[in-house]
Amino acid sequence: MGKQIGNLPSGLAVLLLACATFASPAVVAEGRCPPGQFPVGGPGMLGCAPINGAAPAQSAPQPTGKWIDTWGAIAVSDASGDSGVSSGKLSRSDAVSEALQNCTAGGSADCKAQVTYKNQCVAVAKSSIATQEGVAYTGPQETVQAEALARCSRGGRHCQIKYVDCTKPIFQRF
Predict the structure, then answer these.
(1) What number of other Cβ atoms are within 10 A of residue 96's Cβ?
(2) Is 33 exposed, middle or buried (0-12, 13-18, 19+ CB in 10 A)?
(3) At 24, is the pLDDT very low, low, confident or very high (cuts 50, 70, 90)?
(4) What's the rounded Cα separation, in Å, for the pair 26 and 28?
(5) CB 3.0-4.6 Å disulfide test: which of 114, 139, 150, 173 passes with 143?
(6) 144: enclosing H helix or E strand
(7) Do 37 and 48 contact (CB within 8 A), yes or no?
(8) What is the per-residue pLDDT across 91-132, written as a single tens digit (0 to 9) for each?
(9) Measuring CA to CA, which residue among 130, 131, 132, 100 is closest to residue 115?
(10) What one-character DSSP code corresponds to residue 168?
(11) Buried b vs exposed e over 37-59: b needs ≥16 C-beta within 10 Å?
(12) Which residues lie across from 48 on neighbouring strands?
């Protein structure tokens, strides 16, 4: 008798392998075409056509909403030191307007917008001894706080965080 493959004689193993190959579904390469399509055309004119009965190609994912920016602002009076803030506004002008209104509510007429920010954090540090201050924005809350303190503390002054805020975009579903 011939050689055996596993527990089967070699002739029987080859016969089973051949039957399995021909009994399996046909594997058809679609060449350069996307799934569900086959190549068509001739020299110089190539394209793809759908395979009859094939499922249509899946479409790209569709967005479910959009992100809306939010703004904040800080206004300060140079004469009195009064300040006003705003946060979470849908436009820069609304943020500035509210910050100026909050600043002038304390009686100061010379309030000016010092900082505007969008989708980010801001921190203000002030020294209790002098008018020294430090303002930082752009980065996570811990980073802007550390930067504001560092800017305020130049020259050896002791400073504390007086204001910190983060504006975050809002997701609006369609």
Answers:
(1) 21
(2) middle
(3) very low
(4) 6
(5) 139
(6) helix 141-152
(7) yes
(8) 999 999 999 999 999 899 999 999 999 999 999 999 887 667
(9) 100
(10) -
(11) beeeeeeeeeebeeeeeeeeeee
(12) 39
Average pLDDT value over all residues in the chain: 83
Q: Which residue has the tokens 């068509």?
A: 40
List the structure tokens of 121. Answer: 């954090």
Among 89, 87, 71, 102, CA closest to 164: 87
CA distance 111 to 4: 97
What pLDDT is attached to residue 26?
45
* 109, two tokens: 């007429």
Are the C-beta atoms of residues 148 and 116 closer than 8 Å to each other?
no
Do residues 101 and 123 make contact, with C-beta atoms less than 8 angstroms apart? no
CA distances from 174 to 60, 62, 109, 163 (A): 17, 11, 43, 35
Length of the chain, in residues: 174
pTM beyond 0.70: no
- Mean pLDDT, residues 32-41 taken together: 83
Locus of tokens 């300060």: 76
